[in-house]
């Protein structure tokens, strides 16, 4: 019944390490909707990893590719009922944000800085965290980006620990 009412992709936005991919996968499974990770799509279409794209072409080029990939995902009529996880900066790019707000239901997942630090420490695949102290960078980016993220119509707090509760909160938020 819930699934019948939503006929737009559900797009998860929020900081690196907040759990967009993990929550997105579980949410897709609950809704019986496919899950797509926009970062994976960018890597597949560029045939490069995200750190390679940043190192070779820079962030601006990455943002442009990110917008194109998200635009393609949101234009596909066969993907109306899809859960999409975006990279942390996607919703802070004006053009990308406008696309998402127009064609999808955006859900902002938010965590405190401690949780972001803990979760991002598990993988070394984030170029923006490589040039300094990750806690300081995450804290600054979270402050800078919160005004953008808060434009998403649904807000959910992603607590540390298992994602089950967060998934349930998202389901309530989009119902
Ligand atoms: C970025 C977040 C990353 C990835 C890229 C840039 C950001 O995605 O898109 O490293 O600007 O916050 P995750 O949020 O999935 O880590």
From TrEMBL:
Q: What's the catalysed reaction?
A: shikimate + ATP = 3-phosphoshikimate + ADP + H(+)
Pathway membership, UniProt: Metabolic intermediate biosynthesis; chorismate biosynthesis; chorismate from D-erythrose 4-phosphate and phosphoenolpyruvate: step 5/7
Name the Gene Ontology molecular function terms of this record. ATP binding; magnesium ion binding; shikimate kinase activity
Q: Which keywords fit this entry according to its UniProt record?
A: Amino-acid biosynthesis, Aromatic amino acid biosynthesis, ATP-binding, Cytoplasm, Kinase, Magnesium, Metal-binding, Nucleotide-binding, Transferase
Record's GO cellular component terms: cytosol
Q: PROSITE patterns under this entry?
A: SHIKIMATE_KINASE
Keyword rRNA processing appears in the UniProt entry: no
EC number(s) stated in the UniProt entry for this protein: 2.7.1.71
Question: What positions belong to coiled-coil segments?
Answer: none
Q: Where does substrate bind?
A: 39, 63, 88, 145
Entry binding sites for Mg(2+): 21
Binding-site positions, ATP: 17-22, 126
Does the record's keyword annotation contain Ligase? no
What cofactors does this protein use?
Mg(2+)
Cofactor remark from the record: Binds 1 Mg(2+) ion per subunit.
Q: Report the locations given in the UniProt record.
A: Cytoplasm
InterPro entries, A to Z: P-loop_NTPase, Shikimate/glucono_kinase, Shikimate_kinase/TSH1, Shikimate_kinase_CS
| Any one GO biological process | chorismate biosynthetic process
Pfam families reported in the protein's UniProt record = SKI (PF01202)
What the entry lists under PANTHER family is as follows: SHIKIMATE KINASE, SHIKIMATE KINASE 1, CHLOROPLASTIC
Assembly description = Monomer.
Job description of the protein? Catalyzes the specific phosphorylation of the 3-hydroxyl group of shikimic acid using ATP as a cosubstrate.
Say which family it is in.
Belongs to the shikimate kinase family.
**Protein name as it appears in the record:** Shikimate kinase
């Amino acid at each position: 019944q819930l699934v019948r009412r939503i006929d737009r992709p559900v797009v998860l936005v929020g900081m690196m390490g907040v759990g967009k991919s993990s929550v997105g996968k579980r949410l897709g499974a609950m809704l019986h909707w496919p899950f797509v990770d926009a970062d994976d799509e960018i890597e597949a279409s560029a045939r490069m990893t995200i750190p390679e794209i940043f190192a070779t072409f820079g962030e601006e080029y990455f943002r442009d590719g990110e917008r194109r990939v998200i635009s393609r995902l949101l234009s596909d009529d066969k993907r109306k009922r899809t859960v999409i996880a975006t990279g942390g900066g996607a919703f802070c790019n004006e053009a990308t944000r406008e696309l998402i707000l127009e064609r999808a239901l955006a859900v902002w997942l938010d965590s405190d800085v401690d949780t972001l630090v803990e979760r991002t420490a598990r993988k070394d695949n984030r170029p923006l965290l490589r040039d300094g102290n990750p806690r300081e960078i995450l804290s600054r980016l979270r402050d800078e980006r919160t005004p953008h993220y808060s434009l998403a119509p649904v807000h959910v707090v992603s607590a540390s620990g298992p994602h089950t509760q967060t998934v349930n909160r998202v389901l309530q938020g989009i119902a």
